[in-house]
Amino acid sequence: MELRASFRKIEEMKKRIEELETSFQNCEIRIESRDHIMGEAVVQIRKVADHLQTLAVQADMLSMKYELESSRGQELALLLRKIRVLSIRAKSYL
Q1: pLDDT tens digit string along 4-31?
Q2: How far apart are CA 94 and CA 89, in angstroms?
Q3: pTM (2 decimals)?
């Protein structure tokens, strides 16, 4: 009787080990998937940051041009300066 109980306990433990291994493999797959998604996000963030750098250069040139022309030009210059600030913040992602 004790031998059968021990055998049953061993079988239960084997089943539990299989369940844990399956769960572990599922976790590994999810981690790999998240790593891939994070990698894609980093690539996109770098592209946006690079584009912001380009916009900042253009904004500087336009800002100088329009700042002196009118109140609308000054508003535009302010918006262009904001783009420049965003590009500076984006540099850390390059």
Answers
A1: 888 999 999 999 999 999 999 999 999 9
A2: 10
A3: 0.55
Among the listed residues 39, 58, 55, 62, the one whose alpha carbon sits nearest the alpha carbon of residue 90 = 55
The predicted model gives 26-37 an average pLDDT of 94
Please give the structure tokens belonging to residue 11: 């079988």
| HEC string for the chain | CHHHHHHHHHHHHHHHHHHHHHHHHHHHHHHHHHHHHHHHHHHHHHHHHHHHHHHHHHHHHHHHHHCCCCHHHHHHHHHHHHHHHHHHHHHHHC
